Amino acid sequence: MNSRAHLSIGAVVMVGIVSGLWWITANPNAPAPPAARPETVPASTGTVSGDLKVDSKRVAQLGIRLAPAVAAQQAPLATVPAVIQPPANARVAVAATLPGVVMRTLVVEGDTVRQGQPLAVISSREVLMMGADLTRANARLGVARSNAARLSQLSREGIIAGARADEAHAIAVETSADVSEKARILRMVNGHGASGSYTLTAPIAGRITTASIQTGNSVDGTTAPYVIDAANRYEVLGQLPERLVGLVHPGMVVRIDPDIQGRVTAVGSTIDPATRSASVKAEIAPGPGIVAGRATNLLISGPAPAGAVALPAAAVTTMGGRTVVFVATKGGFAVRDVKSGGANGSQAVLLSGVKPGEQVVIAGTSALKALALSR
Q1: Where is the CzcB-like C-terminal circularly permuted SH3-like domain (predicted)?
Q2: Least C-beta-crowded within 10 Å: which of 3, 69, 224, 315?
Q3: Residues 6+ positions from 154 with CB-CB distance below 8 Å
């Protein structure tokens, strides 16, 4: 084929192309060119990676609730093994004041008692004798007062010397003091002179931790049938790792599950060579599971670093090996990577990823997680 034929064919092709372009432009019903394949769309043309578009209606359907992140005041520092115990001055032994025989017990081990509550009734020969002495002293007091009154009248009438009246008055006063002293002793032991018994009572409010007493048993002044641990006062003794000595100090906040709070009261300065730890002591409030002698874990918190926030632990989840939260955005939610600083009770502490005041999803995270993974 010669060059002239080639030129002719080229001209025909060009005319066909130009005509086709003119027809597409002029005809609005002409089919649009095929869309670009998804993999050819630049990544920068979509929404920010991690955003989920969720309208308000669907938010309600998914049960999504929000809460603002707040600046954290405390951040977990360490969790150490510890034992719950009563403070040194909060355990009281109730001794049998006088020898005797147990007539009746009114409480058992584990009971909670109030201050002054009766614990047991003891029959005692000494109390019976004190009751008889008090009766005799009262009788003498009656005679002494009558005699003093009679002699005082005679003295005023000038029949006898005033010295005799004064002497009678002094005897009456002395007898009255004897009666008062015997009555005071009986009151101190909660004694009942007529029945020859006395009652053991609780010196403090608390819980009976020891009750080594039974009806019919003998007791004396050297035994302590009851031991009471003070109510609402507990202490935790923990083992502080060597690396934390110097970082933990009195006043720091501590927690015990299920969210019982207290404060550090003392930190030991001597390292145990066997455990390489020092002692740490804290006071805690009473609560469920707080029983003397129980082993537990003590969470110690210190001042939170700058920028840390606290929010409900339910807001934090994992997705694809990442620790994330869902932060509310305009028209949806953003999947935000965060750095966890541990849990402070029911609150999670985040060291980065969320700013104070941002609205974070605290309910419905599972639904948003499933939505994010299905994209």
Answers
A1: 309-369
A2: 3
A3: 160, 165
**What is 51-72+306-373's CATH number?**
2.40.420.20
Classify 50 in phi/psi space as left (phi over 0), alpha (psi -120 to 50) or beta. Answer: left
CATH of domain 77-89+233-302: 2.40.30.170
**CA–CA dist 234, 133 (Å, integer):** 45
Helix or strand or coil: residue 269? coil
For 91-230, give the CATH class.
mainly beta
Query: Against a cut of 0.70, is the pTM above it?
Result: no
Q: What is the mean pLDDT of each run of 10 residues along the chain (375 residues)?
A: 47 47 44 37 34 83 89 87 83 87 91 91 89 89 91 87 89 91 86 88 88 87 84 85 89 86 90 91 84 87 87 88 90 88 80 90 88 81
CA-to-CA distance for 74 and 65, rounded, in angstroms? 25
Ordered by start, the domain boundaries in the chain are 51-72+306-373, 77-89+233-302, 91-230
